[in-house]
Design brief:
This protein has 17 helices and eleven strands. By secondary structure, the chain is an alpha/beta fold. The protein has two domains: about 5-130, Oxidized Rhodanese, domain 1; about 145-363, no CATH class. It is globular, with a radius of gyration of 25 Å.
């Protein structure tokens, strides 16, 4: 039987096609294709043993070992998992690392069970190369960068734009010491794939937040980041009180909602306190021991007040965090890069209007 192949076309991702990744879980965790579900042909240990056999004895011995390891009820269970997924998503497509033996075996077993599905020619590797090429191509797209002091609601501004691209959402990180997300960060590969997928959805101009190259544990691909560095900018300027209310929402209210939803009241509260205390501790070098100790005391008192129902108590440590840490750091960067071109400087609403006008002019 001729088993069908399908080209490694990024249109599959743009369409939101479900993909069956038959690689081992350890490979999937290192980076998968957007929309992929991991239903492996071999688990991590089986793959490890087959890999040793391949290295020491060659392909024929490795294939024979794989057949011995994945047979009987194990084989039936894995075919059953593929069939159940295909009942829900009958147009799903199979892939492995290079689109070779593992995805071909999965195809063959499915065909014997009465269901023929294509596999991606070149597999994960070919699709990843296409995604990285698209990021390099997108580096040439017109870009506008939104900058401003911490608490100026730059991310909501990006999200309000049709051409906005939220890099922090791709990285699951807010791009600061307090920006860690309760859920684990994506791998560098998954970050790049998420970025490429969002760029696939935006063929025209792109509006992004001003970021350093590293966002949490992830790095913006160099060609794309260099193009961001050269892009024109809009700077949001808001009062301290306005910004304080915004970071209270970001660092306390919104964060608590996520932790509570994910872990429940007791554990969520404990984990949120631990994250915020750890984030403050990581600023010791810049704050100095005396200021850090003062802010840690204020943060501890704020948590106690919060437990009594006084959420606003956090402003006692958030306000000096802005004025003594974030604001001087941003102003230093602004002076260091005083050659940057600002198309507009103003409040949040005027910057939103300026970004919308820029986007319209680029189309």
């Amino acid at each position: 039987m001729n088993l069908p192949l399908i080209a490694a076309d990024l249109g599959l991702l743009r369409e939101g096609r479900v993909l069956i990744d038959v690689r081992a879980p350890v490979e999937f965790a290192q980076g998968a294709l957007p929309g992929a579900i991991n239903l492996p042909l071999m688990d991590d240990e089986e793959r490890h043993q087959v890999g040793i056999a391949y290295t020491k004895q060659g392909q024929e011995a490795a294939v024979a070992l794989g057949e011995r390891l994945v047979r009987g009820s194990i084989r039936a269970a894995r075919i059953g998992a593929w069939l159940r997924l295909l009942q829900q998503h009958p147009d799903a497509i199979i892939y492995c690392f290079r689109g070779g033996m593992r995805s071909q075996i999965a195809q063959q077993w499915l065909a014997e069970a009465g269901l023929v599905r294509p596999r991606i020619n070149g597999g994960w590797k070919a699709m990843r190369q296409a995604l990285l090429r698209h990021i390099d191509t997108a580096a040439m797209q017109p870009k506008l960068i939104i900058s401003g002091l911490t608490g100026c609601a730059k991310t909501p501004l990006i999200q309000a734009l049709n051409h906005g691209l939220d890099l922090e959402a791709c990285a699951r990180h807010r791009g600061s010491a307090f920006g860690r997300h309760p859920l684990s960060s994506p791998s560098q590969i998954d970050f790049e794939h998420a970025l490429a997928l969002r760029l696939l959805e935006r063929s025209g101009p792109v509006v992004l937040e001003d970021e350093s190259r590293q966002i949490g544990a992830c790095n913006i691909p160099l060609s794309f980041w260099r193009s961001m560095e050269q892009a024109p900018r809009v700077r949001v300027e808001m009062s301290l009180d306005w910004r304080l209310a915004q970071i209270h929402k970001d660092y306390i209210d919104d964060l608590w909602i996520i932790y509570q939803r994910q872990f429940g009241d007791w554990l969520g509260w404990a984990l949120m306190r631990k994250q915020l205390a750890s984030a403050l501790g990581r600023l010791s070098k810049r704050l100095g021991s005396a200021r850090l100790a003062r802010l840690q005391r204020l943060q501890l008192l704020a948590f106690r007040e919060h437990e009594r129902g006084n959420r606003q108590a956090h402003e006692a440590w958030l306000a000096p965090l802005l004025t003594e840490y974030y604001d001087p750091l941003y102003r230093y960067q602004l002076e260091k890069n005083n050659d940057k071109h600002f198309l507009h400087v103003g409040d949040w609403d005027s910057c939103l209007a300026a970004a919308q006008q820029w986007s319209a002019e680029q189309e």
